[in-house]
Amino acid sequence: MIITNIRTGTLSVPLRKPFKTALRTVERLLTIVVAVDTDTGVVGFGEAPPTGPITGDSLGSIRGAIHEYIAPRLKGKRIDNLEDTLNALDTSCVKNGSPKAAVDMAVHDLFGKLYGIPLFKLFGGFRRKVETDLTISVNSPKEMAQDSLEAVQRGFRILKIKVGLEPELDIERIRAVREAVGTSVLIRVDANQGWKVREAVNIMKVLEKADLGIELLEQPVIAHDLEGLKQVKESIATPVLADESVFSALDAEQIIAMKAADFVNIKLMKTGGLRSALRICSVAELHGVECFMGCMMESKLSVTAAVHLACAKSIITKCDLDSPSLCSQDPVRGGISIDGPWLTVPDAPGLGIDGIDGVSWD
Hints:
Helix content is 41%, strand content 25%. With 362 residues, it is an alpha/beta fold. The chain folds into 2 domains: 3-116, Enolase-like, N-terminal domain (Enolase-like, domain 1), CATH 3.30.390; 121-356, TIM Barrel. The chain has an 8-stranded parallel beta sheet. A 4-stranded antiparallel beta sheet has the order 3-2-1-17.
């Protein structure tokens, strides 16, 4: 099986409600779909959403990286020589994690199809399904409480509460959500780099004193401030999750060595794909640090790749893979099955995806 061509197209899917964080507001899922063609007629699929505030990628830069740098290096590469093919991908250009992630998952999809094995089994086969939280966008406390109730009615038992846009309101937001959903629902708090160190410590101490039952705090401070992240971690009782601070295994190694966070968040669009994500898992396993599997605003296509990895590795203990559940429709044929918060990998080889409807191919 030899790579003959790499195609890209645009997919747009409306969301159920606008997705609001401290970094951005999104009303539609807009993403680049990648199809890697082979001489056998078998196609591998991947995806790269533009997430400028986090990864720096745009629609144009993703297309440009794939067609100008990645495709010329990968055409003619053999899928059965996975190491050589992924080395060519990694060295095709620097950075550009999202376009690399899209092609990486498509190549892995082809590798699984070539040998007739689902990716979660290829990577370790630890389990068949995982439970995701559901994200509650940052809005008024009343609206967030209502959105949280609706999420619980849909079967979600874990909520990720977005804060950090107006720190002075964040305590009220979290308190309103807890009062609305009761004590049986887990609450995670994600500031998306929106707090200063002192703000983060003060807010969390108020929440802890009020016994609001916060499971963890995600990325309270700006990504590059690892000392600040460590200061927050050492000053509060709530476990801290590093997200935007972690793009690579080297980042994970540094954060773990500094003891700057309790968990590290793996996102394929940050790591540049499954191979680099597996390296983060290995680093975390060496140090006994649990991993969190997350996603950007992605369709079920790339979330399927993330679920395969999460199901494969026992070191991944928590998931935030809810973006397909935030969409008003699902254009992906095949892939994971979704039952409320439960995401189950298919038995089909590779990603188990048959195709994507509604793509405007370039």
